[in-house]
Amino acid sequence: MNEEPTVYEVMAAAVSHELKDFERWFLGLATGEETILLLSHVPLVGMALAQHTHAPNSVMSVAGWGLNPVLNEMPTLESEIPTTTIHWRCEAHITMSAPFHPFATKRGDVDVGFASAAHVDKYGNCNTVCIGDYHRPKIRLIGPVNQPLHFSCFGREIIIMPHEKRNFVDRVDFISGVGYLDGPEARSRLGFLGSGPVMILTDKAVFDFEPKTKLARLKSLHPGVSLEDTRGNTGYVHNFMPEEVAITPQPTPEELRIIREVIDPRGVLLPR
Amino acid sequence: MSVVQLKEKLCSLAEAAKLIKNGSRITFGGFTIHNHPMAFIYELIRQGVKDLTIVGFTNGNEVDILVGAGCVKRIETCYVGLEKFGVAPNFRRAVEKGEIEVVEYSEDLAIERFQCSARGDPFIPSRILFGSDIPKYNRDIKEGVSPLDGGKYHAIPPADPEWVIVHTPMGDRYGNALYFPNMQLPMNWDLVMTRTTNKVIVTVEQIIDRERVLRLSHLNMIPRFRNVAIVEAPYGAHPSSYLQLYNFDAEHLTMYARLARDPAEFKKYLDKYVYGVKSHLDYLKLIGVENLMKIRHVGGGL
Predict the structure, then answer these.
(1) What pLDDT is recorded for position A103?
(2) Nearest CA in chain A to B134
(3) Residue A30 at interface with chain B, using a CB cutoff of 8 Å
(4) Does B60 contact A at CB distance below 8 Å?
(5) Under 8 Å CB-to-CB from B219, ≥6 apart: which residues?
(6) Which domain holds residue B86?
(7) CATH number, domain with residue B281
(8) What is the mean pLDDT of residues A197-221?
C-alpha cells in the first residue's frame, strides 16, 4: 500500500499504540459531526487496530450497546445508539443499566477511556459545561456528561481535541473532568482510582504530561505538521515545549492495510 | 366471567397532558435523540404549561423544545444536546440569558438518582465528584463523612420526580405497557424511572387487546397499576427515534437544529409543527407518509 496515511489514520494508530492487551476500553457519547469523527470514530478504529495487532484479548465497550462490535459490518454509525444495533454482530449486547453492564466502572474495571472538551487546561482538566461565568456564561456547552466518572475511576484517559488555539487554556472555567487539577499531588489527595489523562491527541500533535509537574507537554508532531503551526495554534501560556519534539509514528503499511481493508473497508468511519 | 370491570386508563393526549400542572417536577424517558415521548411534549406545549422542573439524565431535543417554548424553569441533568446534530440551541440560549436554572450532575449519578428514588433511599454516597466544579455550583449536593470508614463523600439527592412520562411500543387500555425483548439503553433506564413515582403516564405506538397482553406477559414491563393514564400515539417519538421501530428523522432534526438557533425562526417552527396542528394525527399528516416510511424499521423488535 503506497498511499500516505490520512491524519485520522495517524491519530487512530496513536490510539492503538497506547493500548495494551487484556485491557478494557470505554467509549461514550459525542456531540456534533466533527467531534463524533474525532471522539468516536478515531478511537473506534484505534481500538480495533490494537485488537487486530497486539491486543486481541482486550474488550471495547461501545457506549450504550455493545462489547466488541464487528465494525466492518456496520451499515453506518450515525448515532451513539443506532436504531438497528440489535441486528449488528458483537460479542455481547449490553445495556447501560449499571447492575448489568459488564464493566463495574466504579470498581476500576475500565483501563482506558476517551474524552473531548471545549477547553483543556495545562493540567489536563476538561471543560464541557460553560465558557465564562457559570451563572451568566458567554457560551453554554452540553454539560458534564460522564466526565467525572472517566477522570476519577478509569485507569488512563485519552483526551482528543480539534487543534485550535482557543481550546488550550491555562485554567478551564469549569472543571467537568479532573485531570491533575492543580499539580502532581492532587489525584492521590482526591483518592481517585485512575491515574488520569495520559495523552492529548489532536489533528496536529500529541501532548503528554511531564511526569514531575504533570503539566501538558508537546510530545510529537504528526507527519508534515510544522512546529510553528502547532505552537501558533496552541493557547497554552506555560512552557509546553519538550527538549526534543518527536514525529508521531505513522501507521505501518500493515497497520494501514488493516485499517482500510479489515476494519473500515467502506470508509464509513474515517474519511479518506 | 367476572362482572366487575377493570378501570380504563386509555385517554387522549389532551386529557393526559392536562394532568400536568404548572410548576410540576417531571421526567421524560429517552436518551439524547432517542425514544422521547414527543407527542406528549407537543401537547404540553400546546396547553401552555409553565415553570416545569425537568429531572433528567442525558437529555436532547425533548428538553430543547420545551425550553424554547418557555415551559421550563429548572433542569437537573448531565447533558442537553442533539448528538450528531450538535448543541441544543434553545437550551444554550436560555442558559446564557439566565432564563433557566441548570443543576449539574454527572451522567452516572444523574441516572443513579432514579435508582435511589426507586429504592426509597435518602441519597447516593459518591466519591467521584471531588475536584470537579459540580458540587461547587450544585447546592443540592452536600459533603458528608462516612459513619463506617470516616472517609469523605458527596451525598447526591434522589431524583424524586412527581411525574414520569415514557413511550413504549404497545400497551392495553387498562394501562399495561409492553416492550419488545432485547431492551437496550434507553429502555432500561425508562423502566427505572417508572419505579420512582406513582404518577406514570405511558404513550404507546399501538393499543393492543388485553388477551394479547396476557399472551405476551413476559414483555409487560410496566404493569397497569403503575400508570395513571395510557395514550395511543403512533410515531409518538418523532422526530426522535424509537429504537427497534424507527430511526430519528435526520432531515427534520437538521432543520430543527438550524431554525432553533434563531428565536424568530424557532417561533415559526413551533407555529407550524406544534401550535399549528390540532392533534397528533394532524402532526403525522404534516410530517407526511413518505417521511415516516423512510425512517421506519419493520421487524426491529424481533
Answers:
(1) 87
(2) A176
(3) yes
(4) no
(5) B178, B179, B180, B181
(6) 13-105+160-295
(7) 3.40.1080.10
(8) 98
pLDDT the model gives residue A29:
79
Position of cell 433542569?
A: B75
The span from the CA of B175 to the CA of A44, in Å, is 42
**Average pLDDT of chain A to the nearest whole number:** 92
B111, part of any domain: no
Asked if residue B8 belongs to a domain, the reply is no
pLDDT at B2: 67
Residue at B49 is within a domain: yes
With left for phi above 0 and alpha for psi between -120 and 50, is residue A139 left, alpha or beta?
beta
Candidates B139, B131, B70; CA nearest to B104 is: B139
Nearest to B283 by CA among B48, B65, B38: B38
C-alpha–C-alpha distance, residues B177 and B179, integer Å: 7
pLDDT at B87: 96
Q: Which residues of A touch B137 (CB under 8 A)?
A: 134
Find all residues with CB under 8 Å of B149, minimum gap 6, and list them.
none
Smallest CA–CA distance, residue B224 to chain A, in Å, is: 23
Query: Domain spanning A7-263 has what CATH number?
Result: 3.40.1080.10
B206 belongs to a structural domain: yes
Residue A77 Cα, gap to closest chain B Cα (Å): 10
Of B83, B92, B131, the CB nearest to A190: B131
Q: Which uninterrupted H or E stretch holds B118? A: helix B107-119
* Domain edges within chain A: 7-263
Domain count across chain B:
1
For the purposes of burial, counting CB atoms within 10 Å of the CB of B267, is it exposed (0-12), middle (13-18) or buried (19 or more)? middle
